[in-house]
Amino acid sequence: MGKSNFKSEPGIERQLALQDALDILRGKWKILILRSLYLYGTMRFKDLLEASKNITPKVLSNELQQLELNLLITRTVNNTKPITVSYELTNHAIETLPVIKALIEFGLKHRKKIKDN
Amino acid sequence: MGKSNFKSEPGIERQLALQDALDILRGKWKILILRSLYLYGTMRFKDLLEASKNITPKVLSNELQQLELNLLITRTVNNTKPITVSYELTNHAIETLPVIKALIEFGLKHRKKIKDN
DNA sequence: ATAGTTACTATCCTAAAGGTAACGGATAAC
DNA sequence: GTTATCCGTTACCTTTAGGATAGTAACTAT
Q1: Do A6 and B40 make contact, defined as CB atoms within 8 angstroms?
Q2: What is the pLDDT of residues B56-113, one digit of tens each?
Q3: A101 CB near a chain B CB, below 8 Å?
Q4: What is the CA B97 to C1' D29 distance in angstroms?
Q5: Nearest CA to A44 among A88, A94, A85?
Q6: Fold of B28-115
Q7: Residues A107 and B16: beta-carbon distance below 8 Å
């Protein structure tokens, strides 16, 4: 396979960074949830349930907990009459926006490619 | 949840594109394989086995088939003494480079954030 | 004839992800 | 006191991803 013909040096740090990113964003729902929060700002649990078509409360709850653990969203309990809970992105989560944009761009091009056979 | 405060309109096309992209690139290995091919150009099966630490031949074989199906890599059999097979990225696969770059950037920032507590 | 190389495939198994359906605690409205 | 809303949890099950181990086909070298 020889030496790199594309970049100076791979760099173990970049390799680890990539693996971490994949771990954190892995799964069917996390990126979709992040995108909803980008688009709509603050959302309640119920909003996210409706926005993420076909997700179940259990799964949504899990995903939100993981996103919170990884410092991508915050969870705040509002003292409203029927209790409500608000989720929003942290500043840190802004760093995932380029990932989402790139995925959408790739997806658009891929769909076009498929359509044109 | 109100109206968007961030972008004009979500757009069902972008939603579908995102879901397609996530489907195509899903899993523990695909993006790592694509990155190896970016870095090294043409690679044989054995090269990819060594570059993707801890992957098994069965899993690698599966991943490669899926990537080929989705038009991201090509597979060519070389008529060498012990048969060898070369994999490389298609032109179309270039479109995934921004995704990988964005993931790495996010991963680097995330690692820094974690280290700084 | 035996052993090695390359690129897999086959079989079996475990673990993680994801889904279904029902329930619970808090509060309030009717 | 029954019903409703909101945000979950619990128990259970199915599906998918991933891994371990061994084997195979084609060829080469010794």
Answers
A1: yes
A2: 999 999 999 999 999 999 999 999 988 999 999 999 999 999 999 999 999 999 999 9
A3: yes
A4: 43
A5: A85
A6: Arc Repressor Mutant, subunit A (1.10.10)
A7: yes
